[in-house]
Amino acid sequence: MGRPRERFWAAGVVLAVLGMCLIGTIVHLERQDREFRSRAVPAKATIVRVEQAPDHRSNHTRYLLSFGPGSRLADEWTTGASVSGDVGTTLDVVYDPSEPTHLETASEGTFGRWPLRILLGALGAAALVGAAAALHGGPRHES
Questions:
Q1: CA–CA distances in Å: residue 45 to residues 18, 37, 96, 102
Q2: What is the C-alpha to C-alpha distance for residues 18 and 123, in angstroms, rounded to an integer?
Q3: Residue 87 phi/psi, 5° resolution?
Q4: Run of H or E residues at 116
Q5: pTM beyond 0.85
Q6: For residue 134, how many other CB atoms are within 10 A of its CB?
Q7: Cβ-proximal residues to 27 (8 Å cutoff; 6+ apart), any chain
Q8: Phi, psi at 80, each rounded to 5°
Q9: Among residues 56, 61, 55, 53, which one has the least CA distance to residue 91?
Q10: 58-110 pLDDT, tens per residue?
């Protein structure tokens, strides 16, 4: 008798949890970016080696960079199409001195991250709206 209502309630709870997780992911990513930017130090980096991804399923290129005081080497910095260069090319980067392999080009900023955050936000909002509809709605039986 009450089974359809229970299914709507269960679906509503699942959608609410999913929506909150997606929105929480956006908050986490924003906090992580803010912390990185607060510690980031600008530096000039020089490309010392360029490698194409070995699996040929990816269009990413790996750049081994020398940068910062004492010419540290970033282990492997993988980037997409926003950077290109040959050995000897100089790039402006920002990096975290406590974790020098975490770096970004100075021009990257946060614009490149917005499409993912907009997608996560839209999915999270849709899940929360679906949860509200399932928890509030669902089949009602008149007696």
A1: 41, 18, 14, 13
A2: 9
A3: -55, 130
A4: helix 114-136
A5: no
A6: 19
A7: none
A8: -90, -145
A9: 61
A10: 666 677 777 766 555 554 454 544 566 788 888 888 888 887 777 777 666 55
